[in-house]
Amino acid sequence: MAKDNVDLICDIGELAGLFEKSQSLSDFLQSAVSIVAFHMRAAVCSIYLYDADHEELTLAATQGLNADGVGKVSLKLGEGIVGTAMKELRPICEGHGSLNPNFKPIEGIFEENYEAFLAVPILLRGVMRVGVLVAQDPQPNYFHKNDIKALRAISSQLAVVIENAKLLMSLHEAESNLPVEKIDEDEALKPTFIKGVTASSGVVRGTAVVLDGHGYDVLTAPADDSVIPPGMKDFEVALQESIAQLTFLQNRMEERLGDVASLIFNAHLLILKDEGFSGEMRKLIESGMAADRAVTSVVNDYIGLFSKSKNPRLQEKVLDVKDLGHRLLRNIQQHGEDQGDYAGQILIAKELLPSDVLKFAAQNVEGIVIVQGGVTAHISILARSLRVPMVFVENAAILDVDEGTLILIDANQGTLFMDPSDSVLKQYDSLVNRSEVERLSVTPETFTEDGTKIKLLCNVNLLSDIEFAIENKAEGIGLYRSEFPFIIRNEFPSEEAQRLIYERIYRGMPEKEVVLRTLDVGGDKKLPYHHHDEEANPFLGLRAIRFSLKNLGIFKQQLRAMLRAGVDRELKIMFPFISSVDDFLEAKKVMVECMHELEAEGTPYNGHPKVGLMVELPAAVEIIDELAQAADFFSIGTNDLIQYLLAVDRTNESVSSMYVCHHPAVLRSVYRIVNSAINNDVEVSVCGDMALNEDMLKFLIGIGVRKISIDPQQIPRVQAFLGGLHTEEARRHARKLLRFGSLREVNQYLAELEA
Ligand code: PEP
Ligand code: MG
Q: Does residue 220 fall inside a structural domain?
């Protein structure tokens, strides 16, 4: 029988499903080896786990070898084929394992019966030794290149699960019961109206849940007002309900957001199943403590331990633990009455990772308030894709709001009402209803009043954005931010997983223009599973194309996936953060190398991609004519161009008043870029948020921009605006703006226009 193809074996859903059904790590590993053996039609599949202290590998699970060897069979680093694969951090594939000089059959587990041998190291972040995944078969030369690829994809998934389980184990070894600060309730401030800025629009209301405060970060104990305190039975039911809810969430995420979902609730489930966690709660309940108190006590111990840990990966788990605590408490207090999610709630936090935003969105949070942050920061971009209203506020007093306080978020205006009056609520109800009636309709093409065609494309961050793009009749995708599947997952998506994502994008936009941007990580987009060196100024550091050129393996995998996905259609690849012609040519050279490799392998690919760049750095503006000679197209990234031209951090709310798109330096730079593109016959589009501002859109049309890429939900508004705009009027507007040398003059002119 033929082996299953790589796609099937790589299927994350299958591993996630296995994990959910498993009672422990060893149970999970055992299921994993069975399923891999099944898909590979291999007689044997085993996992060895690595102990760094003793530099030793131990058999942890096997399908096909003698199970008595589990936990007993050990190999030193460098010993046998398995030890060599671990030592040299590379897969070893032998048609005749017994001919390999390192082959060392282990007595008693019947290894000698299997000639074909494939050992793939399980590595975290590509370098940290976790273990070895091994497949064996009696038929010589049984394994091929595709099998290595498949095992590699699986082992990167396994690495994450094993790492999380190990983190928990190491936690138990740490000294426990660190003291935690208490909240002084009398000190809590109660603001009633807060002006912030919109990160993701919408009007919602809900009760407040504060995720982190000024360092105390504990779960608040429930009020002791129950007649009969909840006991062991309530706890067990709540625990099972929590597991079922998380499993449901994980599955739903995979259906809806397959590109980014990965094993996102994996840490939650692991902690829940951890004996030190639920077992400790049971012990406290047995000793007479009420179940809700026991949950609070253990959760707070964990929060204390996690937040004091020196290991940043453990620190990141604080939110997961607190979130779990909330879920367990809700389930104890109101069995089955809700899904244990954030429906009806507004989350308030000091800081969130992109993966947190995704988790809370999956748990139906109504809206999010973040203390500090900037609107073009990438968590805002993600919130917009997820349709979660989000507001940034400067005033940290909001972190002291009583949990359960009613909050109304008008994220269209960037305002918050704490405990709003009935009249405010009524006013908003009528506003929400009216805006639903007033939905703008869209047409497939966009023209100015005088008939000039403007191509309206959209920016896509998640595959789910494509639905909105189609609904709003986008003419294509002007910017696909390919980093989102990277920053939200728990590990690098394999070349195959990436190819599938890019293919799904193309399927959603047949016959239309699609621009795939290569990884833009760094800055405010860190990969949680990759070791990023500490940087004093990450926005000036190893970001985007610099990261890709430094991590050629990752870059090549992505380029190969793009070249393969675009095999039978127009392919446009764009490099972000280009600061020199040299960087651009270097990146292009890597792409050509990928083409040669694919050619040699006989893998189908697109051999004629159009290659462009993001113009988002002042340096690129200075050499724009030279870049125009080298590139097929430009896309102006105004979010970053403004940040770097004006030296204003786009994620820092306290300097947001200086982040102005109509600054003369910005206007003149954008003009220079567009002018150079037109003179050199290079396609140009604008994909930053500057195009959302009507005065600026008019300016862009006035200087000759005919292609705009924006969030899909903005298309109807922008189309309606352009429909009423005359290009001659736009040209006059642009000429006028370009003459001003000071912000004061620009402000005055724009204010006059409004009057
Ligand atoms: C930009 O910089 O304008 C842009 C569109 O890219 P990103 O927001 O992803 O940095
Ligand atoms: Mg950018």
A: no
- Report the pocket of ligand 1 as residue ranges, CB < 6 Å: 376, 479, 481, 520, 616, 637-640, 687-688
Distance 576 CA to ligand 2 centre (A): 7
**For residue 131, which phi and psi values (nearest 5 degrees)?**
170, -165
Map residue 601 onto helix, strand or coil. helix
Pick from 480, 578, 616 the residue to mutate for probing ligand 1's pocket: most ligand atoms within 8 Å of its CB: 616
How, if at all, do strands 193-195 and 367-371 pair? unpaired
Comparing CA positions, the residue from 458, 460, 490 lying closest to residue 475 is: 458
pLDDT digits (tens, 9 = 90+) for 102-132: 888 777 777 777 889 999 999 876 667 889 9
Catalytic residue among 378, 530, 662, 733: 378
Owning domain of residue 106: 3-173
Q: What is the Å distance from ligand 2's center to 75 Cα?
A: 48
CATH number at residue 398: 3.50.30.10
pTM, rounded to two decimals: 0.70
Decide if 458 is catalytic: no
**Residue 223 pLDDT exceeds 80:** no
Write out pLDDT tens, residues 160-185.
777 766 666 555 444 333 333 233 33
Query: CATH number, domain at 37?
Result: 3.30.450.40
Work out how many domains the chain is built from and give that number.
3
| Tokens describing residue 56 | 């030793």
* Sign of CA pseudo-dihedral 260, 261, 263, 267: positive
pLDDT tens across 323-338, in order? Answer: 888 888 888 887 655 5
Based on the residue annotation, tell me whether 687 is a catalytic residue of this protein.
yes
Per the listing, tokens 């995420």 go with 253
